[in-house]
Write a structure and sequence with these properties.
The chain is mostly helical. Strands 1-3-2 form a three-stranded antiparallel β-sheet. The termini are far apart.
């Protein structure tokens, strides 16, 4: 469709040139575009020929696209010419300012008589567009439009409803009560800490999780949870440790980020300290 429209436009330009209605060496681009668009104006068609009407609209849209691109190119060309003219004037002024002899020369008397005023405004700098250049530009535009690939539209995922979002959050939380998990871990540390670390105050997180899984208290929590996984044991113990740490029942230590986490039960440390104090300080 784009190529046939360009061919029609080129044939239309050649026909105008042969009839002498346009100058092949100085084509008025805007006037030619208006005349070509008038040829593409869709006529009133009956209801049964809607396809022809839509085809005419498509051709008119492509013609408007060509027209805008041609006018833009001509405007850019004129802007570049004006910029070059401005650069030439600036260079001339710099040469005049650099000439010390000219700068030191006194101004002539009756300067207003020496200035020649221009009767009319400076004519606008226009570059002539030839018929051959216009045809070549139309062929380039037709190739660009023909090679253009339509953009693929991707469907955005529909947002979840509020009920689905609440359900997803509930599943992520595994429907567990963190306070109950913290109480169970607190009982586990009170009864099993001496078995985990009989001679040391600190233990690493992985060892604590392994003992928790094998303990009776841990088995009871695992059976009560309907969303139990191996990862949920680690997550549950970690959140319970944070809860107990806020209550000053355990102490957490990590020397560097993303390194092993160490745990110490403050309750066992307090018991050991109280026993030592009672032994050192008799009645």
């Amino acid at each position: 469709m784009a190529l046939s429209l360009a061919q029609n436009a080129i044939a239309f330009l050649i026909d105008l040139a042969e009839q002498g209605e346009i100058d092949p060496w100085d084509v008025n681009v805007i006037d030619v575009i208006d005349r070509f668009l008038s040829q593409l104006k869709p006529d009133q068609t009956p209801e049964g020929s809607r396809a022809i009407y839509e085809s005419n609209l498509s051709e008119s849209g492509q013609a408007f696209l060509y027209a805008s691109m041609l006018v833009l190119l001509k405007a850019d060309d004129l802007a570049r010419q004006e910029e070059k003219q401005q650069q030439g004037d600036d260079e001339l002024m710099e040469d005049l300012l650099a000439d010390e002899a000219l700068m030191d020369a006194p101004l002539p008397l009756s300067l207003e008589r020496q200035i020649r005023r221009r009767a009319v405004a400076r004519p606008q700098q226009n570059r002539r567009v030839t018929l051959q250049e216009l045809i070549a530009q139309l062929e380039v535009m037709a190739s660009a439009v023909a090679e253009h690939k339509p953009r693929i539209r991707t469907r955005r995922p529909r947002p979840h409803s509020r009920s689905k979002a609440v359900r997803a959050i509930a599943q992520l939380a595994h429907q567990e009560n963190l306070s109950e998990m913290a109480e169970a871990l607190d009982r586990f540390l009170s009864t099993e800490w001496e078995q985990i670390r009989p001679d040391e105050e600190w233990t690493d997180f992985e060892t604590l999780v392994q003992y928790w899984i094998e303990s009776d208290i841990g088995q009871q929590v695992r059976q009560a949870s309907s969303h139990h996984t191996d990862q949920s044991d680690r997550v549950g113990v970690f959140w319970a440790l944070l809860f107990l740490s806020a209550q000053s029942k355990v102490e957490l230590e990590q020397n560097e980020f993303y390194q092993d986490l160490r745990v110490r039960s403050l309750k066992s440390s307090e018991i050991a300290t109280s026993d030592a104090t009672s032994f050192v300080l008799p009645d």
